[in-house]
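Lay summary

Proteins are chains of building blocks that fold into shapes. Our project writes down both the chain and a compact code for its shape. Here are two examples, one after the other.
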Amino acid sequence: QSENSDKSSAESDSETEVEQVSVYHKLLATLKTSPESESEEEEDESESEEAGESETEMDSEGSQETGEAGGDEDDENDVPDQEEGIPATDTAEQTLGQEQADGDDTSCDPNHGVIEEFTDAKHESEFSLETNFMEEESGDCKADQRDSNSSQAVSEDPFKQHMDKEFEEKEVEKMSTLPKTSSQSKWPRLGQLTFSSTLEKHKTLKADKEVDVKQLYLHKPLESTWPKVNKQFLSSVNKPSDPFFTLLQRELFCIMNTYRDLFYPERNALTNGEEIRHAYCLHALNHVLKANAQVLSNNAKRRDRKPGTDNDDYRDQGLTRPKVLMIVPFRECALRIVHTFISLLEVNDKRKIDVSNKKRFKGEFGSDPEEKPPNLKRPEDYEAVFAGNIDDHFRIGVAILQKSMRLYAPFYSSDIIIASPLGMRTVIGAEGEKKRDFDFLSSIEVLIIDQADIYLMQNWEHVLHLMKHINLLPLDSHGVDFSRVRMLNLNNWSRYYRQTLLFSALQDPQINSVFNKHCFNYMGQVAIRNVPLSGSISHVVVQLPHVFRRLEAENSTSVIDIRFQFFVNKVLPEYRDAIMSHTLIYVPSYFDYVRLRNYFKKEGLNFTHICEYTKKAGVCRARRFFLKGEKQFLLFTERFHFYKRYTIKGIRNLIFYELPTYSHFYSEICNMMKATDSGVDATWTCTVLYSKYDAQKLAAVVGIDRTAQMLQSKKNVHLFVTGEN
């Protein structure tokens, strides 16, 4: 479903560009609306007078926000109408990209998706790797020389071990053609791990029970600053012998530090999100400091060398300078990463590091706490994900040199690039565009993709587009000294040395596909593959019969049409009767939503609909019509629920057209029924459509044991949740 629909979405973008700007930014803007307008939407809309008043106000607000979108009675005009593919939350990348390419001084209002393309031109020579040398007084110079002269250090430091590894062309061919061999292991905290590699000799990693910080080969000053920065996550539960890491961090960093690829699908914004962020920030900064120290040390050696000596001894860099690419969903995430970097580089209060453009960065990536309405009631996980500045269109280059950090560095002078998928998409551009650039991605050595599940709610096509343009040979030399470039980069083997760290809140076929098809690290891959034992159905608190109806499909592409035909021919006829009113149909895919909406219109069914593009007034009307029973069906998209998390009142019958992407949405939607003031609990129904290709989603909802039984049996499964499970 993903790749085909993503391709078609890219083709039709140009036709809907103008509309996409307004509706998507309207969606983002409504996440930060005023207390008055939000409270009106959250009020009980059972009285038509109240609803009518708020509706009028929302109509006027909607017209102001969308400009040319207008205030039509029906919200369908705000919904992109081509069924064959407009991505659900695709921002106007071509329009915005063109603004930046033309050099316009666009406003940087964090509430809008337009970013100002500012780059720091003042500090170029100060942060140049080519013209600087290791500072003698820092002690790093002697340490680096000592390390380089020690064969033991070369053999044991994971950074040097990984980057200095040399391959023959035949070995590289094997890596690109041979299937991966895999093995299983169980770790105390991470649980079930799958190790895979194309190399014949690959060792299965064992979890370190205790960590000697010296064995981690942390670069100065990280060895001394990390315990202070990470102290907030350590509790009295931790043994005195490990004052550095939580148990989760220790096992994750153990894998990261060996330069294996890592997929961790149990990131939780509420519980472990920040400790994971700190762990990968430590790894990224450690990598950059070591790489830059090697270059600066070699600069000094080249300066002092005798004439006529071989230049090949100093191959220590890539074809372009950026080494680490960090993909995060919102500006708030970038803000926290940079703050962590600064904390890790500052040895103490007396030795502050110099950070250029820090004030500007705080202004553009920070947020005003007063902007958020105080009366909004949202689940805790929603508050954690949408904290701070939630603009999703940004990119920033960071250069680090000894005791200084340069924010807004030009990409070709940056060590680290922090960006959103959309921020990358607008600079990479598309084939045929005059102004596009992706050479700066040619020598990325560490790729970190955090909160990957959120990109499924934004536009997954941007992630795929990025993966296709990373580690390609640059089209221009960009002033590189080829005598300093590693042979692995000159041979176009960068992808085999790139480490990818992928963090997500869930297992998903599209995320799995990126990890399996776009990661070629010769060190191999490690994926955490724990199976859910209970499932989110255990959190349903209303007494409700759940009927799981199985679809039979030959392959994953045909299941889309088979699901539609099954729903139209077998499920919908059972709900056409007036007795089956108040039926909410939950639709995860926007494309399925458009298809169903068009069918309902053609059949003349009494329905209303809410999606991520629906204006405030349209949402208010739809909720009221559905509550009062004036509309029998409500089509409801998953992305709307993700971005808004409104409680829909009046649900008596529930149909999951497909299992939700987030398993906890299943129990959330079911539990909305308790908001229905009715004594007819026994007539409530819940129907779920699934196929064998939904195994991961099914397990997350009903648990692994039930899933195994349901996939073996071809019969429909009836479960009754008593509210005490």
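And here is the second example, written the same way.
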Amino acid sequence: MLGCLKNPVVVTVEINMNLVALTVIGLISRLWGLSYPRAVVFDEVYYGQFVSLYMKRIFFVDDSGPPFGHMLLALGGYLGGFDGNFLWNRIGAEYSMNVPVWSLRLLPALAGALCVPLAYQILVELQFSHCAALGAALLILLENSLITQSRFMLLESILIFFILLAVLSYLKFYNLQRDSFFSGSWWFWLLLTGVACSCAVGVKYMGLFTYMLLLTIAGVHFWHMIGDRNLSNVSLMCHFLARGLALVIIPVAVYLSFFYVHLTFLYRSGPHDQIMTSAFQASLEGGLARITQGQPLEVAYGSQITLRNVLGKPVQCWLHSHTNTYPIRYENGRGSSHQQQVTCYPFKDVNNWWIVKDPGTQQLVVSNPPRPVRHGHIVQLVHGITTRYLNTHDVAAPLSPHSQEVSCYIDYNISMPAQNLWRVEIVNRESDTDVWKTILSEVRFVHVNTSAVLKASGFFGASLPEWGYRQLEVVGEKLSKGFHQSMVWNVEEHRYGKSQEQKEREVELHSPTQMDISKNLSFMAKFTELQWKILTLKNEDTEHKYSSSALDWITMDTNIAYWLHPTSGAQIHLLGNVVTWASASVAALVYTCLSLWYLIRRRRKIYDIPEDAWQLWVAAGGICVGGWAVNYLPFFLMEKTLFLYHYLPALTFQILLIPIVLQHLGNHLCSSLLLKSMFSALVVAWFSSVYLVHRTFSPVTYGEPSLSVTELKDLRWKDSWNILIQKQ
């Protein structure tokens, strides 16, 4: 038992000094002078708003992507003690003393710094030499655009970090599976692949492209495993399930967890609530929740309600009426019914209240016990203030002549009888006996006489003219024209009416609701709604001074001015290393041409390189060329404002390809010692030029030192670059 104590316990640690040195230099390059400039830099004005909302626990929706990246930026603010009090309204605005600039920029800078050792390890795992791996890491280290993007409160460096981490994790997993199936390290790298992919998607949806690439590569590798007769059916099934768990199920679970944390932290009402449904708004503290908390759940005959249109775009609006009537004749000469106007009004107002009436009685109060309204029931909707009935008939609507006019009926004692019966249809019902519920039920009103559906059509055209106070048009739309969300309504505010007399009822309608039942959405219901809003909500794209096309990126015909000092002329630009960008494009072209040449020759049974070198070449292309393609080509299909920084993930993969092509050329195309020596000298000269260009553009990468007008003009290597020259 004590024999083991006779010898000392020895722990052997292998330290890759290349990796340590690259990590340290990467940290220095990204963290040096991180608080400079102490002013809002370009898109910090955009992301900073969300950080402030996180600090104040106020709900928001960002249509640019999921919340994980914003949470990481907010974590930096939390670690620095940021209270969220800063007005993010202008690029170049000086930060107040309560803003922890260094802390807010820390996580993007760390992510950018760690991309340097990740690049080194990826090439090592691809079975290339340490010299090639070192070259890839140094190219990432000296790439000016990656430095600039990682030194501010922006998301691209975090996205690239998780993309590279996912690629590295999968390569380590793949290399391990040759020797040790289902070992601890095998599971670790496989699971980390899935988690890193989920994090990449959680930062920006661009990460989805790399995730799909890795899933495709994993599928190809598993397809090859199926052909291995040494593996039993049980073993293959275990491999399949392990990959399904790690690369599909766990990433989905991690992605959901981002939204769970997001919705848990942001529980307060804010300026973005209005695009969400009434049920979602009511689940937040403050705002609509203060109004709707404790309302009756079931709508009954005699209920007083406001009806909000579910579509909510471009603005939310409520069914509304007022004493004014439609003009006898419109400007185009068409006539109207001259009945009381019904509109959709984008503000809360006492004229938004309606009473649900049973057509069989004259009672406008809720009975005891209440009689709930169910799917399929026939109701009349009485305008609370004017007591006129919601009506539609075969008269053309003012702005939509192919649809029916909707009005509140006035009896002019002419041959135009009231047509005010509506059938309640609950769109999201679970059964045909469902009760109409406050906030939760989405309903449409089908006119009994004409089968027209009550619809807010003003979302699709101009507002009503001055006679309609520029409010949105409401029409009766034939069911034959198809279903649309603008036909769906939900009860937002609700009370049980108690006053039969009109004067008392008007007082009741002006008073706030105070009832007994609260409603909460499940997490999955809130997630589904928020995810749908993120995917479908699009801000109006406008041309930006620094926007560009995807074709401009390859040759870097564009730049972005991130910051300009108001007096000294010091400035920061998103500009890449010209030599690196040109070399990356050439490397991709050389790889493509060589691959086609090899394929044609192999088809003729001519093998120019050994089989193991060919497999290495193909695997490297699958990662690097594939990574470039999936992160670049989709932008040609996107209808959005594009900027140069969108190219950085694709560029990163292209940079990794440069040393791969160089090593391949040196090993297989330089046959003689003289050629190898000349090639090595050219590579050294080329790399020296990369470093010189990096140093030349460092002043506009870091923002210091400030340059003279002449020096700034000298940096304008392309006429399309917008280098800012201040007038003397």
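What can we say about the second shape? The radius of gyration is 33 Å.
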